Inverse folding.
């Protein structure tokens, strides 16, 4: 079942993220203390996150890094979408200039 994120309140989303982090930790058979130590955060902070309390984005990144789950951010990668006519215009206006040939034979 896919989550319909727009229909959830902000606090419901935070609770869902916390529950997901807890499940990832349990799937790796880690205690809260083990994960907190690996993430460089306090165990109480991890407990708060898992229980749906708001946390800084930095804390979430630290936890996901320790869980080896940073690939969850892959959908956020920005990919340039190039308009073909804009690309052609850019090529025409940014061509390297030719140097004038020196007059006379080389020394």
């Amino acid at each position: 079942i896919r989550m319909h994120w727009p229909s959830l309140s902000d606090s419901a989303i935070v609770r869902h993220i916390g529950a997901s982090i807890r499940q990832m930790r349990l799937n790796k058979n880690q205690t809260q203390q083990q994960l907190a130590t690996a993430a460089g955060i306090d165990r109480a902070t991890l407990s708060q996150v898992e229980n749906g309390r708001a946390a800084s984005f930095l804390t979430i990144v630290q936890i996901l890094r320790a869980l080896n789950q940073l690939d969850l951010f892959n959908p956020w990668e920005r990919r340039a979408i190039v308009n073909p006519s804009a690309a052609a215009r850019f090529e025409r206006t940014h061509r390297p200039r030719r140097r004038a040939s020196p007059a006379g034979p080389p020394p």
Remarks:
- Helices lie at 10-27, 32-39, 43-50, 57-66, 84-93.
